[in-house]
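Input set for joint prediction.
Command: fold jointly, output tokens.
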Amino acid sequence: MPELPEVEVLARHLRPALHGKSIRRIRVNRPKILRPTTEKQLQRALTGAKFKGLTRRGKYLLFEFRAKGGKDITLLGHLGMTGRMFVARKGEALPKHAAVVWELSKGTFVFEDTRYFGRMTLDLSAVEKLGPEPWDREFTPEVFARELKRSRQPIKVKLLDQSLIAGVGNIYASEALFRAKISPRLAANKLKFAQVERLLDAVRDILSEAIACGSTVPLNFGTGKSDGLFYFGSAPGVEDYYEERLQVYDRGGKPCLVCGSPIVRLVQAARSTFFCGRCQKV
DNA sequence: CACCATGTTCCTTG
DNA sequence: CCAAGGAACATGGT
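tokens >
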């Protein structure tokens, strides 16, 4: 479930769910997910700590706590490929792959992750390496263009570079390029300035629309199958809602929704890219 | 069985 | 030193 929009929507749901609560006890079922923090360190830092706030940076979540001794603590969360987080109600069964569980003053916070690629750690170094948020005022088309000039990698691959721009993942990279009518194969340093402008607008619009869409969906994490979100999401009764959300991703061989020509799948940097060979000529 | 999957990091090669 | 490519991580779905 996790690119910037999904993480943003999750943050908006978790904030009120954690408001005013503190951590009674921490259970770690998958210590690796804390790396390089140890289970002991996490428990020492957070047992008895009170939730103070939650922000998002790129695809990361930053949990703020006030520890028992009065010290402020930041905990970093990342969903990896398959991570989910939710506050379960009392007596609710834990999912099979619950990696970390916080028993709260009221309720239970669950970080579950089938593939265990996610993170929950006191090591904040990953965030320092992130590039700007897509809507950062300083991140102008001029800045974007200057960075792209330095690379001959395909533009699709550059969009996934979190040190260039934070938060774009494999799905929305394809979607943004389709929106901007730019070929994913075009070398980053070959983009015209007008294309860079269009691409930045497209990235911002695609992500904003996904957040707006996700924000209207009633999440119901606890009950099982529904992660309530986006591409794989199926909140009850809103199935059709998702139909038209993705224009190219995972639509290989299907007709382009603009021109009807078949959507092409290719592999770049070991990841699938989808695009329309007719609409995205250059 | 084969191949695919929303992400990041590490290692190798040039 | 850097850029680029690929494997590894771990589990499940088709």
